[in-house]
Amino acid sequence: MPFNQRLADELARMASCMELLGVDAFRVRAHQRAARAIESDPTDLRELIDRSANEAAAKAALRAIEGVGDKIADKALEFARDGAIAEARQLAGEVPAGLLALLEVPGLGPKTLRALWQGIGVTDAASLKRAIHDGTILTVPRMGNKAVDKIRHALMIVEESAGRLRLGPAWAVAARIVEHMRRQVGVVEAQFAGSLRRGRESVGDIDVLIAARTPEDAEGAHGAFVAMPGVTAVLASGKTRSSVRVAIEPDPRWEPPTGGDGSGGGPGPGAGAAAVPSVQADLRTVPPESWGAALMYFTGSKDHNVQLRGLAQLRGLTLNEYGLFPDEPGPDKPPQQRGVRAIAARTEGEVYAALGLPELPPELREGRGELGLAAAPGLVREENIRAELHAHTTASDGWLSVVGLAERARLRGFHTVAVTDHSRSSTIARGLDAARLRAHVRAVHEARSQVSGITILAGSEVDILADGSLDYDDDLLGLLDVVVASPHASLDQPPAVATARLLRAIEHPRVRVLGHPTGRLVLRRAGLEPAMGELFAAAREHGVALEINAHWMRLDLRDTHARAAAEAGCLIAINCDVHAPEDFDNLRFGVMTARRAWIGPGPVVNTWPAERLHAWLRSGRPGAIT
Ligand code: DGT
Ligand code: CA
Ligand code: CA
Ligand code: ZN
């Protein structure tokens, strides 16, 4: 970056810090004005300073610039000499780093941030989000609902441009990389780790770990990594650590190729990469004997790792990515470099066992209490799922016929599939009016004779209208085997209105599943923010299952909400919201989200045997399922 730009940025940052700290406006403006002047000055000030006979001459030349006064000229000289301005560092030290980062959010100026910091203690994005969520932000002067909405939206855009990638596309890329690495000579283990392995809804990058038989094999594998198909830029290329950017294939249904909002990964650096959405992938190689310890380390989360190391210390041990070692604190070298033999390192199970822990599934490794588990919890697994209760056909916006849908579901080993096309208000999704719904129910009944070995239920995904009423009247709903009620529009309602709306839907006697309860979209839309506790209590009381929509764009309920729902004793439905045949493959993301919520098969209605599931669906409405 040119000198002028760097200096201007430093001065502008100083001005921002001063504003956050409430320094007088005159000094703030002087720094801002100087930053603008220096940024747009055609002369390279570095050269100008170097060319000057002495410091006094340099200072005079600087002062000749309109907007640069005596003090600023001194600072420019200091910056040229030291590469930094001491006062800038001091100012930055007085402001929380997270607050400075928030300055980058469009629409969040220093004045607003100062009010948020001083008024309600906002110091970073997380505390700002909390203040928005619990409404304390509204106690700050001049903060109305409109302003808060703007901030909320801006925060989301920033997260998106921070280059996080949604779970589904990340998984596809990572699976391809791992497959590629497994094919290389001498590669005995290959696995992706990091947030992806933990099943987080979005990932910052893809961390791939391999074990190679020899250093030569490792070198060859890294060569194959940086040269693999899809690499758009090589960021680092080494014998045990490499980093690249890999192209991601946008899903045309969610990421329109021309100008859609939210292309997932940020554009890659470097010439020519800008147009291709890509994600960073890191490859690390470890010797096979420390595979388990390394996999644990790079799977994280950071919090989980920190807690594990603490536990190791309590037991007089040292844990790092090379293994679990008897703690013999040496002068300065880690145990593996002093020839200390690891107690456990080869497998994750061994390392956990040596720490007195069950082998914790990656989805639990978030530092949320999992180290207190005495035994590995029986979390729900993909193969436990035997029914799909949320699927669309060509009658509305799906790509499959009723028969085609049923056959795919049966091939996956499901005993039940519910046809739940959209209701009339979802006009974009070709929602069914009363007449079409009646005809569709008949068509579903007829399809039953064409596919055996699976129960095809006639249902609907009925819109929950803005006031909480349902999109069909009770007579129509009475024709259906299953009603999934979902919010699709008016997703920016205030929390209290959203709560009342969803409660009304839950209380409706025909509703069995609350579909994607908040309507949020990962990295794109916040969705409704109802009082979850009230929702969960009502869902439990009325025996309504809360959906974890398995599509990676939704994952709604999200992991934290799902955990609270399960703890509140709610039933859970994990549904693929099938539109196209490949949507069944999203099941893994829904299941991972449930596992992140500590959910076992018990409360998940899709795991129940047919008779139990059908009886639950019939409850309150006798005689429906034939
Ligand atoms: P991401 O990529 O932002 O979605 O999140 P992660 O969890 O994949 O984080 P990442 O990629 O920075 O690092 C991968 C794992 O490596 C992380 O989960 C734990 C481990 N790790 C990285 N840096 C540190 C560290 O400074 N301390 C510890 N204990 N573990 C670390
Ligand atoms: Ca990562
Ligand atoms: Ca990483
Ligand atoms: Zn829906």
Descriptive report:
It is built from 24 helices and 16 strands. The chain is an alpha/beta fold. It has four domains: 3-161, DNA polymerase beta, N-terminal domain-like (DNA polymerase, domain 1, Orthogonal Bundle); 165-255 and 278-286, Beta Polymerase, domain 2 (2-Layer Sandwich); 291-367, Beta Polymerase, domain 3 (2-Layer Sandwich); 382-618, Metal-dependent hydrolases (TIM Barrel, Alpha-Beta Barrel), CATH 3.20.20. Helix 17 links the parallel strand 10 (387-391) and strand 11. The structure holds 2'-deoxyguanosine-5'-triphosphate, calcium ion (2 copies) and zinc ion (ZN). The site of one calcium ion has 4 residues, from loops.
Give me a quick take on this structure:
By secondary structure, this protein is of the alpha/beta class. It has 24 helices and 16 strands.
Structural class of the secondary structure composition?
alpha/beta
Total strands: the figure is: 16
- CATH T-level topology of the largest domain: TIM Barrel
- Percent range for β-strand residues: 5-15%
Bound molecules: 2'-deoxyguanosine-5'-triphosphate, calcium ion, zinc ion
Strand order of the largest sheet: 10-11-12-13-14-15-16
Flag low-confidence runs.
256-275, 621-626
**How many structural units, i.e. domains?**
4
Shape: globular
State the CATH architecture of the largest domain.
Alpha-Beta Barrel
Which value, in Å, is the CA radius of gyration? 29 Å
Determine and state the CATH class of the largest domain: Alpha Beta
Name the helicity range: 40-55%
Distance between the termini: 72 Å
- Biggest beta sheet attributes: 7 strands, parallel
Task: Give the CATH H-level superfamily of the largest domain.
Answer: Metal-dependent hydrolases
Question: Count of helical segments?
Answer: 24
Chain-averaged pLDDT: 91
